[in-house]
Amino acid sequence: MKRSLVISTTSVLLIILWAYTVSSKLSEFRHFKIQMRRQVFPEGMSEALAYILPITEIIAAALLCFAVTRIYGFVFSSLLLLAFSIYIALILTNIFGKVPCSCGGVLEQLGWGEHLIFNLAFLSLSIAGLFAEINNLKERRT
Fold first, then answer.
1. How far is residue 29's CA from residue 60's CA, in Å, rounded to a whole number?
2. Distances in Å between the alpha carbon of 50 and those of 41, 54, 80, 104, 136?
3. C-alpha distances in angstroms, 40 versus 46, 72, 98?
4. Is the CB of residue 50 less than 8 Å from the CB of residue 36?
5. DSSP letter at 108?
6. DSSP H helical segments within 1-142, as ranges?
7. Which DSSP letter does residue 103 get?
8. How far, in Å, CA of 139 to CA of 142, rounded?
């Protein structure tokens, strides 16, 4: 029972996170594209990422909605959050030589350090959900 509560809670929290970030990006898509151009990526890559990121966040949320795909949702969420966290850590170490804007609704109000802590907390939740789901699947097979 405890494991299913962890799985349900982490799934819901991640779905809320992805739904919020997607809605934030899509509701102000023009602004989001401008913010992406201010990142450290080459312009063509920034343009592509402006479309790819919302799609990947929708996929992550959708995978978490169904028991049969939830494990993939946890893996996908963990990889996205890890990538975002590494990017933020690189910004904080000044490896790019500039500090770009922080994009994303309420998260835009956070500094990069706080944003990293936020991402690491959600990464930890995602990993906890992943391990709970793995153990749950193992238990069902036996």
1. 19
2. 11, 7, 15, 12, 36
3. 8, 29, 8
4. yes
5. G
6. 2-27, 29-37, 43-64, 70-92, 112-141
7. P
8. 5
Cα–Cα distance, 103 to 57 (Å, whole number): 15
Calpha distance 109→131 (Å, rounded): 32
Local confidence pLDDT in tens for the 142 residues of the chain: 588 899 999 999 999 999 999 998 899 899 888 888 888 888 889 899 999 999 999 999 999 999 999 999 999 999 999 999 999 999 889 888 777 766 555 666 778 889 899 999 999 999 999 999 999 988 888 7
Tokens 């939830």: give the residue: 70
Q: What's the N-to-C CA distance of the chain in angstroms?
A: 17
Calpha distance 104→120 (Å, rounded): 16
Q: Which of 113, 125, 110, 36 is nearest to 77 (CA)?
A: 125
